[in-house]
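Appendix C: a fully annotated inverse folding record. The material below is reproduced so that readers can follow the format used throughout the book. The structure is listed first as tokens, followed by the designed sequence.
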């Protein structure tokens, strides 16, 4: 069942936490020491994931923040190749965070759009 009360959808809280981790991981995993461009990518995209998640929490019936979340998650997933972080801890972190953000955003979108069960019944 879809939760349409503000500030209650767990997927958005997890996605916000993932964005916060992405933001701080630039320091924790040494991305800033490896490549400043990669660090700035983590800082900007991590902040964007947090803000989009807060938007989704505030307006739980909106689909747009989840579509943006899908795009941000996909970018996070491919960014290790763009910034030379492949097979480094920051790269592995980006792959996990990116995949999780895509899955969580897609999950909520399916719920908001009625999901497979609602479409099969209708």
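Designed amino acids, in order:
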């Amino acid at each position: 069942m879809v939760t349409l009360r503000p500030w209650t959808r767990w997927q958005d809280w997890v996605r916000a936490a993932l964005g916060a981790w992405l933001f701080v991981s630039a320091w924790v995993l040494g991305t800033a020491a490896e490549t400043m461009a990669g660090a700035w990518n983590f800082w900007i995209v991590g902040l964007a994931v947090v803000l989009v998640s807060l938007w989704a929490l505030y307006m739980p019936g909106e689909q747009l923040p989840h579509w943006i979340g899908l795009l941000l998650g996909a970018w996070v997933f491919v960014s290790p190749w763009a910034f030379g972080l492949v097979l480094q801890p920051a790269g592995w972190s980006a792959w996990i965070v990116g995949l999780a953000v895509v899955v969580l955003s897609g999950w909520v979108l399916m719920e908001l759009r009625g999901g497979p069960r609602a479409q099969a019944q209708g």
